Amino acid sequence: MYKVYYRSRFDSNDEQVLHDLETTQTLVEGTITQSLDKIPTFEFNISMDNDLYDVLDPINGIVRVVNGMDNEIEFEGRILQPTASMNRNGFTKSFVCEGYLSYLHDSAQTYAKFGNNGVKGYLTRVISEHNKQVEPHKQIKVGNVTVSDTDNYPHSYIDYESTFDTLRSFLKERFGGVFVMRNTPSGLVLDYLKIEDAGDHGKSPIALGQNIKTARRNVNFDQLITRLVPVGNTVEGQKQDESTPDGQKTTSERITIASVNGGRNYLEDSDLIRHFGIRQKIVMFDHTKTASELLRKAREFMKRQEIAMASWDIETVEMYLIDKNFDKYKIGNFHPIINPPISGIEELQIVEKQIRFSQPQSVRLTIGSQIQTFSSYQAHSRKSSEAYKNFMGR
Description:
Elements: E1 2-7, E2 16-19, E3 29-35, E4 41-47, E5 62-67, E6 73-87, E7 90-99, E8 112-115, H1 118-133, E9 140-145, E10 155-158, H2 163-175, E11 178-184, E12 187-193, E13 206-207, E14 212-220, E15 227-231, E16 242-243, E17 249-250, E18 267-268, H3 270-276, E19 280-284, H4 291-303, E20 308-317, E21 334-338, E22 346-356, E23 362-372, H5 374-392
Parallel strand pairs: 9-12, 13-21, 15-19
Antiparallel strand pairs: 1-2, 1-5, 3-4, 3-22, 4-7, 5-6, 6-7, 8-10, 11-12, 14-20, 15-18, 16-17, 20-23, 21-22, 22-23
Helix pairs in contact: 1-2
């Protein structure tokens, strides 16, 4: 079903067949992991019977995996990690390949402070520096940007990190969203999209008794805060954070809300405390210079706080292979999940998909993570309870 091609360089024309079940050129096993949150990977094992066993070139070599059912490219990227091994069945090599997003690890940024020019302006500046350092085939154009700046600070910063880590820490961790790399006829294009813009809404459900083989629903409360201690910028006149001669880090006094909040340096949510108890955490608002501004931002933070992350790990049948009325499961797309003993009906996004060559009809999906506010968490709990009672009463 899957065909794998190899070429020695990104821009070379020497592509050869690495795997095709209709020929003698086959792999022992292959696994593709597509992801919204990570660099896509392709891992495969190759035996000495394959003509390319001793030809594959790490770092330079490019692998492309094509789905024989619809001719879509399921993976394309470079070979990174080779491992040779021997067992009673003979000699094999295993390889780990990474998608083109990994090219962002091949350049480094240096410190800079500049006026805030929005998310796209920041991304353009970082990618421009990346392009100065790398070969032509690794150069990238900035494509669609739908993520917006929610902080509106006057200045932006770049630190001493790889380009990949810079984009992760200064954009993704602050504003959310996903990076999507596209290989187009004119070169590589990097999109930075809101999570909801990364896919379409499919009509085919993932349903108990229809295509679910195994399912597990996870709810993570690690980010829950019922009592918030906000801290702002360093108090004027205080020294900035520094280190002692023996390397121990010291800190300086920072602005709190105590002076404008009745002497209390925290805010709390009585409904959350009643339900979950006290979970006190400190949140830094580094660019906040007054107590009143800090109090306003802290209240906004608590008001929009997302208390839980819900996700599913599902093994399901790829029904489109046998019935074209079903949608193909694609990264970023949303599908209804119907599994009454565990949960009510949810429409969630596919954030990771694993394809195994040995079982192409059975795929592993990570679906979510659905971010829940307290009200949505309560509503879902009620629906789950009702769904369970209805299921047991059938």
